[in-house]
Write a structure and sequence with these properties.
The complex is a heterodimer of chains A (about 300) and B (about 375). With about 300 residues, chain A is an alpha/beta fold. Chain A is built from 10 helices and 8 strands. In chain A, strand 5, helix 7 and strand 6 form a beta-alpha-beta unit. Classes of the chains: A alpha/beta (about 300), B mainly beta (about 375).
Chain lengths: ~300, ~375
């Protein structure tokens, strides 16, 4: 009985301080959204993400430990467009935090207002693979969309935490200034990459490719989420040779065995290409991500034919 | 002239409806948005071998069940989940149907309707979605074919603490009869089944985690008539459970390799006659290894006595190899041997095919 009272006392003691924390707790589904929220939230916010940058965001396990994070959050930000549909709704429903449920100020879908590519026209079904019916969800890979997301985060934080609205506005201004400077650097780098043809493993890169003038010729997956067959690999090797593809870009969470084989057969350069903040240890901010991606492409082209 | 007026009036009335019915019209779009999520899981199964002690063996190949799920938020406070099991032989049963109030203060949530009891973890998984063509022997012996489910209400509480995720469930159900659930037997209309579970979850590393839970269920086990006092009394049945689940999956290679181990123990104390009890027990242990993106193999060991029975027990094992052509369909070849309580052995082979259509589901964790 003594143990029971001790347990109950600890439980009640632990329940209280979570509501008294001064910083706004923000939980995001991906590290990219967390990086943008950190830029805007600065010292006023405590930001964490559920998926790590080296994880495939489609296949994150809905671990109960994430509920502890969500339970204390005042703002939840998701990429949306059904990227996290296999795990985020279940976590939100079970987090017992009504303030971050869809429709409440504490819920934010980062895709709102962003330029979304590949919205399917006409009917969509699973004969197309694990297709996203609302458009390609890897839209954060266009820095212009990063700017849109940061602005939306600033607006939302100003509603949730109006006392620090001025601070959020200042942080956003500083971030936008740095982003604009970086974009000039990136445009200079991308000039050398314009028109290069690449094959990617998954259809993760339309926003990135469009922004920096890269041509994605085909995918190692025949359809989203469907492992490649021998016939598709045969077709792909023919296409790589016919189209003069120079690089094979593979997200870090895919097995490299088959891409290595294709690269060896077609004399293309295989690049393990980071799709998110945190995919590599050195990529700590949203701006680091594009720095790393563009330099990696440039260096890889130098290594090729 | 009158017919022209009628025609014109009919046209005017029909026009707004025709406009509303245009594909892509706003009214149509908004009605689609508010539709609940509807999905279905189909379960086809083949069986080879001879079942002992069964007068009507199942067909060699059958559409066992189609599970239709209809799920939606009802209003800002509640969501509704309905799961209809359409049996291959034609019957339709409400497998689960409940409302959940998820906006309660203090880390509480309330559930009411027909749902699966929080006794262990395996009981919460719907039949088609389990890795097995059958159910663990201990579950069949104590909870019957459908598992521990009934109409009732339950409160769930995330117990705040600094160490791990701790959840406390307290549930009350109308008590089913022994034919449905052998561990209990409804004696009177007002008999209830009470279930409590304390479950903890802890991340050992980024890739490995474990869950440990203790469950208790209490209900009636029929009535006994005493001819001396000319009165009757309700007999009681109590179950205790312990469940352990260990998972491993490297998040950097999440789709290629994983390991899953689940073991559940059950102890039963059932009143046979007033003041006289029979203690029985059982357990199962299931290990599964995913060795490639589409391939998994697993095995389960079973040992169980029977509720209110003596020392007689059954034991057995099941092994399987499964292939998933995509996230949404899985084919599994399984073999099972059971040593019956009378010492005879039963060998069965199964082919289980399941498919999922509709919105993504989430694996129960």
């Amino acid at each position: 009985m003594r143990f029971f009272y001790l347990f109950l006392f600890t439980a009640l003691f632990c329940a209280a301080p979570s509501q008294l924390s001064a910083k706004v707790k923000i939980v995001t589904t991906t590290e990219d959204l967390a990086a943008l929220a950190k830029e805007v939230g600065g010292d006023f916010a405590e930001v964490s993400s559920i998926a790590r940058g080296y994880q495939d965001p489609h296949f994150v396990e809905a671990k109960p430990s994430y509920l502890l994070k969500l339970k204390k959050a005042r703002l939840f930000i998701q990429a949306g467009l059904e990227l996290e549909t296999a795990w985020a709704p279940a976590l939100l429903t079970n987090a017992r935090n009504p303030g971050i449920l869809p429709g409440r100020p504490g819920f934010m879908d980062a895709s709102d207002g962003c330029a979304i590519l590949q919205k399917p026209q006409g009917g969509v079904d699973r004969s197309m693979g694990d297709v996203h019916p609302l458009g390609n969800p890897h839209y954060w890979l266009n820095p212009e969309n990063g700017r849109t997301i940061a602005r939306a985060v600033a607006r939302r934080l100003s509603v949730i935490d109006p006392d620090n609205a001025g601070g959020y506005k200042a942080n956003l201004g500083a971030f936008e200034a740095r982003l604009s400077e970086k974009e000039k650097e990136w445009d200079a780098l991308a000039g050398e990459l314009k028109g290069i043809k690449v094959i990617t493993y998954h259809n993760s890169w339309p926003s990135f490719a469009k922004r920096f003038g890269i041509e994605v010729v085909d995918f190692i997956e025949p359809k989203p989420g469907i492992p490649p067959s021998a016939a598709h690999v045969h077709f792909l090797t023919g296409r790589i040779r016919a189209e003069g593809v120079r690089l094979l870009l593979v997200e870090p969470y895919f097995d490299l065995k088959l891409p290595k084989k294709i690269a060896a057969q077609t004399e293309t350069t295989l690049v393990v290409f980071p799709p998110s903040v945190g995919a590599e240890e050195s990529i700590k901010t949203y701006l680091d991500l594009f720095d790393r991606q563009l330099k990696l492409l440039k260096n890889s082209l130098g290594k090729g034919k | 002239m009158r017919s022209c007026t009628l025609f014109f009036a009919a046209l005017v009335c029909a026009l707004p409806a025709a406009l509303r019915a245009q594909p892509g019209g706003n009214a149509l779009q908004s009605s689609n948005i508010l539709n609940p999520n509807i999905s279905a899981v189909g379960w086809l199964q083949g069986e080879a071998g001879r079942r002992s002690g069964v007068s009507e063996p199942p067909p060699a190949f059958a559409f066992k069940e189609a599970e239709i799920a209809v799920q939606s938020v009802v209003d800002p406070y509640t969501r509704a989940d309905l799961f209809l099991a359409v049996e291959g032989e034609g019957g339709i049963e409400l497998e689960e149907g409940y409302l959940t109030w998820y906006s309660l203060p203090g880390g509480l949530s309330l559930k009411a309707g027909k749902f699966k009891g929080a006794f262990g973890k395996f009981n919460l998984t719907h039949r088609p979605e389990t890795a097995f063509a059958d159910r663990p022997l201990v579950h069949e012996a104590y909870f019957g074919e459908e598992g521990l489910a009934s109409a009732g209400a339950g409160l769930s509480w995330h117990v705040p603490n600094p160490w791990l995720l701790l959840n406390l469930d307290a549930q009350a159900f109308t008590l089913p009869e022994a034919a449905e659930m052998p561990a209990f037997d409804k004696a009177r209309r007002k008999d209830f089944l009470y279930i409590g579970r304390l479950g903890g979850y802890y991340d050992l590393t980024e890739a490995a985690n474990f869950a440990l839970g203790g469950s208790c269920a209490h209900g009636a086990a029929g009535r006994e008539f005493n001819p001396v006092t000319v009165s009757s009394s309700t007999l009681s049945s109590r179950l205790y459970g312990l469940d352990l689940t260990l998972r491993w999956k490297n998040p950097r290679r999440a789709i290629y390799r994983s390991l899953f181990w689940q073991t559940e123990f059950l102890w039963s104390r059932q009143e046979i006659t007033a003041g006289s009890y029979k203690n029985t027990r059982g357990f199962f242990s299931h290990l599964e290894y995913q060795f490639a993106r589409r391939w998994r193999t697993g095995a389960r060991y079973d040992w169980t006595q029977f509720p209110g029975g003596g020392a007689a027990h059954e034991s057995g094992g099941l092994a399987y190899l499964s292939f998933a052509s995509s996230e949404f369909s899985r084919l599994s070849l399984q073999g099972r041997q059971v040593k019956k309580a009378d010492g005879t052995r039963e060998n069965l082979g199964f082919l289980k095919l399941i498919f999922n259509i509709g919105p993504h589901g989430t694996d129960p964790f």
